[in-house]
Amino acid sequence: MPTMGALHQGHLDLVKKCVAQADCTVVSIFVNPTQFNNQEDFKKYPSSVKEDLDLLESAGVDYVFLPEVDTMYPSSPVLKLNFGHLETILEGAFRPGHFNGVGVIVSKLFHIIRPDFAFFGQKDLQQVAIIQTLVRDLSFPIEIIVVPTRREEDGLAMSSRNRRLSDLERKTALIIFNSLSVAAKELKEGKEWLVVQEQIIRQFQEQESVKLEYFELVEREAFEIKKQFDPHQKMAICAAAYVGEIRLIDNLIINS
Ligand code: AMP
């Protein structure tokens, strides 16, 4: 189970699933520099190793892999992974190079740990599509298991980056989940997606401290942006926004 640490209940949901299913659970904690397209975000990424280790021990984890940057990257990787159209939409478009970094580090971890199963959160929905592509195209003998998003009581998706939000930003950040919920409800009631999307974008524009990057309807199998809701397709709404300086992402699956 790859993580970047600063663990929360969402991470622990993945851990619990793994402990229940596997004979041996290995969790990695590594803040991977190559997947950060923003150096400030990398430098300020929260860290709480001591607390993380206590949480993992109580959860019944067998091993924690906590490598140094030099161990994972004795030299800078020359290899570049390109995930086709996934590079051009949503996270791919807004975080150039991010998925190359994710693909390389997860491949390294898969080679080192050699797991039978690997657990990933639905919270990073496009990352799931990336990992599934990686496993398929490079024939990793690993089953990928996707775990639902764990939320705070008011709906905010748990994220290590939430720790960096001020009290006011924490309240403001709820606009992301609320907008996803409203949009999902309106789609189910038969409203046109483009009308819903426009109305949500306008609401974000009214909030000075929030900068929306995208709010898109996605078909989940091919992971493509859609302009119309189709109840017969597996769809999700994906959003990314800056709340102050903190970039948050979230999504809601509309039909499973
Ligand atoms: P990270 O430490 O952010 O790289 O996340 C490690 C793993 O935990 C990834 O597979 C994430 O998708 C997953 N994860 C992060 N936040 C949540 C959450 N709120 N609910 C479920 N899984 C999560």
From TrEMBL:
It comes from the Bacteria. Keywords: ATP-binding, Cytoplasm, Ligase, Nucleotide-binding, Pantothenate biosynthesis. GO terms for biological process: pantothenate biosynthetic process. It catalyses: (R)-pantoate + beta-alanine + ATP = (R)-pantothenate + AMP + diphosphate + H(+). The active site is at H11 (proton donor). It is found in: Cytoplasm. Beta-alanine binds at Q35. It holds the Pfam family Pantoate_ligase. ATP binds at residues 4-11, 121-124, 158-161. The keyword ATP-binding applies. Pathway: Cofactor biosynthesis; (R)-pantothenate biosynthesis; (R)-pantothenate from (R)-pantoate and beta-alanine: step 1/1. InterPro entries: Cyt_trans-like (IPR004821), Pantoate_ligase (IPR003721), Pantoate_ligase_C (IPR042176), Rossmann-like_a/b/a_fold (IPR014729). GO terms for molecular function: ATP binding; pantoate-beta-alanine ligase activity. CDD domains: PanC. Its EC number is 6.3.2.1. Homodimer. Catalyzes the condensation of pantoate with beta-alanine in an ATP-dependent reaction via a pantoyl-adenylate intermediate. PANTHER family: CYTIDYLATE KINASE/PANTOATE-BETA-ALANINE LIGASE (PTHR21299), PANTOATE--BETA-ALANINE LIGASE (PTHR21299:SF1). The reaction proceeds by a bi uni uni bi ping pong mechanism. Belongs to the pantothenate synthetase family. This is Pantothenate synthetase. The gene is panC.
